[in-house]
Amino acid sequence: YGRAAGLADREAGVGVTEDTIFRLASVTKPFVAAAALKMIDLGLLSLDDPVTKYLPFFTMQAPDGSTPTITIRHLLTHTSGIAYDKIPDDVTRGSDPKPLFPLEENLRRLARGQLAFKPGENWAYGMSIDVLGGVIGAINGEISDVEAALRAHVLDPLGLNDTRFTVTDPARLAVPYGDGAP
């Protein structure tokens, strides 16, 4: 069964079709997590590996000034201490109006920030999965090429041909709206 409803572009009156492409934003996080878990299953990564094994520069300071070990487990469970309210001003979240940087550059900027708490001591939603993306990109060959790892381990095996970090067919892209009611 397949069905499409609604408008892909309200102003132009273009309807949604079954092959309309939508921006996923934070829904990319489960794809990155699934790729990491697949790589763990393949023995390419371990839950207890320190992030610095793959990203040697990623040494954030805790509130007490120490530089604790952040593990893959911490990233996957949002217990790393990396919280949105503590990221440096020059880091982009991807959804803000700041310029986008290659992932490696953004992670280097993030690494200069401070953790909200020591890893494992609390929970906070933030950029942990972005860091995990850098890890799986590094394992796959290049930190900023998360998409290649996602394609190899999750997207291509599932036949998700339009799920990418760049839009291959802009004519099929729905206009993003944030003003709907309710």
Task: Give a written overview of the molecule.
There is one protein chain. This protein has helices at about 30-40, 70-75, 105-110, 130-140, 145-155, and strands spanning about 5-10, 15. The protein has five helices and two strands; from the N terminus they run ββααααα. About 25% of the residues are buried. The protein has a two-stranded antiparallel ribbon with strand order 1-2. It starts with 6 loop residues before the first strand and ends in a 27-residue tail after the last helix. Helices cover about 30% and strands about 5% of the residues.
Give the strand order of the largest sheet, numbering strands 1, 2, ... along the chain.
1-2
The overall average pLDDT, rounded, is 93
Helix content: 25-40%
Q: What percent strand?
A: under 5%
Gyration radius (Cα, Å) is: 18 Å
The H-and-E topology, N to C, reads as EEHHHHH
Number of helices: 5
Question: How would you summarize what this structure contains?
Answer:
This protein has 182 residues and is an all-alpha fold.
Secondary structure: elements and pairs:
Elements lengths: L6 E3 L4 E2 L12 H14 L30 H5 L26 H9 L16 H13 L5 H10 L27
Antiparallel strand pairs: 1-2
Helix pairs in contact: 1-4, 1-5, 4-5
